[in-house]
Amino acid sequence: MNFNEIPLPVSDPSLLLVDDDRPFLQRMSRALDQRGFRVRIADSIAAGLIDVEGSAPAHAVVDMRLGDGNGLDVVAALQKRRPEARAIVLTGYGNIATAVTAVKLGAIDYLAKPADADDVVAALLRSAGFKVEVPANPMSADRVRWEHIQRVYEMCDRNVSETARRLSMHRRTLQRILAKRAPR
Prior knowledge:
This protein is of the alpha/beta class. It has eight helices and seven strands. The protein has two domains: about 110 residues, Response regulator (Rossmann fold, 3-Layer(aba) Sandwich); about 40 residues, Arc Repressor Mutant, subunit A, CATH 1.10.10. The protein is about 45% helix and about 15% strand. The strands form two sheets. Strands 2-1-3-6-7 form a five-stranded parallel β-sheet, sandwiched between helices. A two-stranded antiparallel sheet has the order 4-5. Helix 2 runs parallel beside helix 3, helix 4 crosses helix 6 and helix 6 packs across helix 7. Keywords: DNA-binding, Phosphoprotein, Transcription, Transcription regulation, Two-component regulatory system.
């Protein structure tokens, strides 16, 4: 589906894009602007929170991990200021625990990078009753292990030391695992 020719079916096309990858931020900003959104950008959690406090947008696309914190803080702040806002979370570190947390905080979708502008627009404009298809292949053993570690990490409020203690794992080993992308 190509959204370039379709006018946006929303009354308020304001959108906040939060990501610390400058080339991606500029590219996605241009693409969403061409699709009819009025895009504001922020390259940090702090800048995103200031933007939300100033004038909460109707839509937000937020990266999960930024240099100064967790993108879910921006999603939570947006939901407090504007409960009807539609936010999606983008991440290169996708896992079930953070997806569940994102949805609980008010995100309407959770997309793995690389996501293009059409994926983002489709997620933002998708109706509430939309159901995702069940994947044909089950998760690999490595992916199941990764998901378990991520779930415990979220349960420990992203505290590496506590997570390592609960998993009976060396803290530095856990840090290396958390820094890598999820296995397929």
